[in-house]
Structures are given as C-alpha cells and as structure tokens.
C-alpha cells in the first residue's frame, strides 16, 4: 500500500490515452494506489491489455472506446464513472513532424483537435462533474518538454502542448475556489510508442543523443512520468495547482 498521502482508495480516476505508453503506466499506477480506473482510448486491444494488467494486480478497471475529439462520446464515458470523479488524467495525444514552411492546414488541425481540444473536453467534463458533486478533485494534463524549447519539425506538437499549459493555468484559477486542483506534467524525451517512430538503428541514435542532453545520462520511461501523475493526483500535492511538473532528466531547468 502507498503511504497515506498517495493512497487513492475509494476514489475514481479517468485516464485518456490509457491504451499504451504514459497513459497505460499512469492508469496502472493509479490503480495500484487504490483508485478505480476508467481507461479511455481509441485502441481497443491496448485498452484490454491495460485493464488486464490492472485486474491481474488486484485493481479495478473499466474501459471506454473513446475518441477524445468526440465531445459527446467523452461526455458519455465520464458520466459512467459511478460514485463521482476524483481524478482526470488527460494524457491522450499524437505526434506530427514537419518543418514550419511545409506544415499544412490539415496537419495543424488534426494535431490541434487531439492534443488541445481533446484535453479541453476532458478538463471541462471533469470540472463540471467535480463541481456538481462537490469533489475536491485533481485534473492532470499532459504537456511536453517541447513547451520549453523550440525543435525542428515540432511546430504542431509544440504549439498544442503550449496551449495545454495555458489551459491548465487558466482553469486552475477558475476552479480553485471549488477545491479542484489543475496541474500539468511536461515530460522530457520518454521511450513510448509515440516516440518510437524510426527503425531500430535510427531509434538507438535518437535515444543516445537525447540521453547525452540529460545530466542523468538517460531518457525517460513511462513509469517515470506516471509517478509525476500520481503525485499530482494524490493528496501529496494538495497545495499545488496551476503548476507545470517537469520530469525531464534535467534537460530543461526553467526558473
């Protein structure tokens, strides 16, 4: 069992992007801390695998086949959380890479719908339920180390993650009076299916380069980021809101 401040027993968490990567690691860890976890994603097979991991470890999981850009479907899934909603982890996101001069409207629109509007919808639904139920809950969004520095080809991704940061800070100021906390996690380069976009040789070169940028000499793993999500979801961060937590291996150290 986790120490008391991290104990989520009796609470309900909703995790988008739960079929793999950081979303899966977060769903599993929240369940390990005692939460009943509602896992949402487009990947049905991945959802099943995540739920199986949770149940085999003795936890409770429910799955929802959800496109986060479909507000009505997301609303329906969140409404299925019996006993109230205590934690929303809006993690679903996609990657797109193209130089600024070659970025098309359809590229930006697609990434914007998932990475920003999908997070916005999840935050709105969570906040509405928490306010109505009087739940002093926690909303955790997923930003990126890309908000701290420019990177070639990362216009769409970086812009949408920067928008998530602004959403997080703005919502925190609006719902704090209800006892609801809103924070973001901005991971550094983390080994996930989303970052595994190259052949094995190119992937190894990329990971080696990113590891050299970190004072710790390594890249991130999904569990590294999931522990930041758990911290923000739990009472251990009860005096933390509107903040950006950066588990990035020290690659960026903003004031």
CATH architectural category: 3-Layer(aba) Sandwich
What is the fold-level CATH name, i.e. the topology?
Rossmann fold
Number of E-state strands: 7
Which radius of gyration do the C-alpha atoms yield?
17 Å
* Number of helical regions: 7
Strand order of the largest sheet: 3-2-1-4-5-6-7
Instruction: Please give the largest β-sheet.
Output: 7 strands, parallel
Give the number of domains. Answer: 1
Q: What sequence of helices (H) and strands (E) makes up the elements?
A: EHEHEHEHEHEHHE
Summed over residues and divided by their number, the pLDDT gives a mean of 94
Distance between the termini: 35 Å
The SS-based structural class is alpha/beta
Instruction: Give the overall silhouette.
Output: globular
Commentary on this structure:
It comes from Streptomyces neyagawaensis. Pfam families: adh_short_C2. Keywords: Oxidoreductase. Its EC number is 1.-.-.-. This protein has a single domain (4-191, 221-245), classed as Rossmann fold (3-Layer(aba) Sandwich), CATH 3.40.50. 43% of the residues lie in helices and 13% in strands. It contains seven helices and seven strands; from the N terminus they run βαβαβαβαβαβααβ. It has a seven-stranded parallel sheet, with helices on both faces. α1 crosses α7 and α3 runs parallel beside α4 (105-133). The radius of gyration is 17 Å and the shape is globular. The chain starts with 11 loop residues before the first strand and ends in a 10-residue tail after the last strand. The model has no long low-confidence stretch (mean pLDDT 94).
